[in-house]
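Appendix C reproduces, verbatim, an entry submitted by the partner laboratory led by Prof. M.T., so that reviewers can inspect both the input and the predicted structure.
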Amino acid sequence: MIQPDRGGPLLVLAVVSLLLFAPLGPVVWWWAHRDLRAMAEGRMDPTDRPSTLWARGLSMAATLLLAMMLIGVLIALISMI
């Protein structure tokens, strides 16, 4: 049985992770990667594959921004010592 795609909801979550809540980025990245793998294996409907690809890319960007923010906070804390 083929699962329905989740490209739309993943894309919304990726935008939210990029603009509002960066810690959601790695989670959406993992979900999108898992869905793309399921599409490639034929277990998921590939109709909304472009949205899933966009969601993966945006969530990667959110994860990168999260990492940069954490590094910035770490540098700020170290400089206070």
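The longest helix spans residues 49-79. Additional entries are available on request from the coordinating office.
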